[in-house]
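Protocol step 4 of 6: structure prediction from sequence.
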Amino acid sequence: MNDIVPTPAVSTPNPTLTAPEPNSAVAWCRHAYVQAYNASKSQGSNEYAAERAGADAYRKAMPPLCGAENIRNFIACVARAMLTGTIEGADATRLLYAAQVAQAAIDRPASGKPGRPKSQPPPEN
């Protein structure tokens, strides 16, 4: 039986990581969020500025879109951020589209056709 442990919402003052995160990439992003949020609050920032600092740190901590595992982890990070409100609306859509394009690029093997690349002009006779 899986126990569901509630985690704090993004707008919670002084957020902490109360539930273990099974995905290490998501845990890394959440940690970056909490560190930046707490640092911003300790410098006297208001709630909005602290959440903004946390969201920026979360995005910067996301894995690069190279390799299948990184792409899956990137998607998990975006999904988690959508659930908590760290990334919203059009930003989330753009990030997921970027992951889809990256996945398509690694799923499609390079063409094995001989010939010149399309970017080069034809040889002159």
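Step 5 (inspection) to follow. The chain is about 55% helix and 0% strand.
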